[in-house]
Amino acid sequence: SHPFILTNMNSMTLDLLSPMVKLLEQKINKKEEEKIKKMLMQLKAENPAKNSKLTTTDVRGMQYFVDQRDAELAMLSVSYDIGLKTLTESEITFVTEAELQISSYRVAAPIPMAVTVIPLDGKLFNKESGKLHYFALIHSLGEDDKRILRKEINEVFFSPLMEQRKKESEEFSNLNIQTLEKMNAPPPEPEGEAVPEGEKKEEKDKEKDSEKKPAG
Question: HEC profile for the chain?
Fold first, then answer.
């Protein structure tokens, strides 16, 4: 049964929605009060000496209300560690130890985005090395976020090629430096000891005189 269902034959408007919400709150509060009174009577019957002074407040416990204008306190979330496996502009697969349901979640990286976990090939998840492998659809991204996500994907996809180009560029730059150093280097010194021009002339004259003298 569904005791809190409210129906209306007319078109839904804000003027009609407000009294329906109040009526729903009244039905829920009435049901809760009946439940608490029943629990109180049961506790007193089990141990009259100990529970005779119990009130509905004792059974209900302390209640806390958060101001809806305080966005940080008005939201509650649970975080799970995941390992990213694949990523496109519209799909994501990841592994985690948590058992997730078919629902929407927030992923923090590579950019903040909303994803909805859905079954793949009839299975909500596949077991992989002790973890659960999920498939999800990415949604609720604006154009700027899509552009950032596309950039992140391209950087990951082309990172090996970019590393290779960077390596080739460094090797080519080093080769250019070595070539310039060789071109600008001074010419090598001639082998042996250099002889002044005057001494060379005297040696030639001595050779001529020796050739003119007869042998014997």
Answer: CCCCCCCCCCCCCHHHHHHHHHHHHHHHHHHHHHHHHHHHHHHHHHCHHHHCCCCHHHHHCCCCCCCCCCCCCCCCCCCCCEEEEEECCCEEEEEECCCCCCCEEEECCCCCEEEEEECECCECCEEECCEEEEEEEEECCCHHHHHHHHHHHHHHHCHHHHHHHHHHHHHHHHHHHHHHHHHHCCCCCCCCCCCCHHHHHHHHHHHHHHHHCCCC
| pTM for this model (two decimals) | 0.44
Residue 153, amino acid: I
* Radius of gyration from C-alpha coordinates of the chain: 44
User: What pLDDT is stored for residue 68 in this prediction?
Assistant: 64
Q: What is the pLDDT of residues 143-155, one digit of tens each?
A: 899 899 888 888 7
Which residues neighbour 139 within 8 Å (Cβ) at sequence distance 6 or greater?
114, 115, 116
Distance spanning both ends of the chain, measured CA to CA:
147
Helices 159-184 and 143-157: crossing angle, nearest 10°?
60
